[in-house]
Amino acid sequence: MLTYVRWYWSDGDRWNYAELDADGWALRHVEVRASDGVFVAAASLAEVLIARDSGTVGAVGAYEQRYGVVPEAPFPLPVATAVEPGLENISPGEFERLWRNARRQLERQTGA
Hints:
The structure is a single chain. The chain is α+β, with helices and mostly antiparallel strands. It has a five-stranded antiparallel sheet. It has helices at residues 45-53, 59-67, 92-110, and strands spanning 3-9, 14-20, 26-33, 39-44, 88-89. The model has no long low-confidence stretch (mean pLDDT 89). A hairpin with a 4-residue loop joins strand 1 (3-9) and strand 2 (14-20). It is globular, with a radius of gyration of 14 Å.
């Protein structure tokens, strides 16, 4: 079962969105600058693992430069119990819309 969450990171003025697996690990992650709505990340754990396993030196770094990073620690679950202050549930549809828009924007910026 997947869970979709968002939170605001004030230090970076960013809204963060994540698709979490049953253990709280982020499978996909989106970041949006709050001040102007520009997407700054849309990273997928599966894609990072493919880059890592490609054997190409610097593949993960190139991926992260283009799409950003996926959180490297699990989130406390269940989110609904407010274990993590500021973490809110969102709908799968909202996440998918953000994901598609973020990927489209980042790919245009990098010429993909």
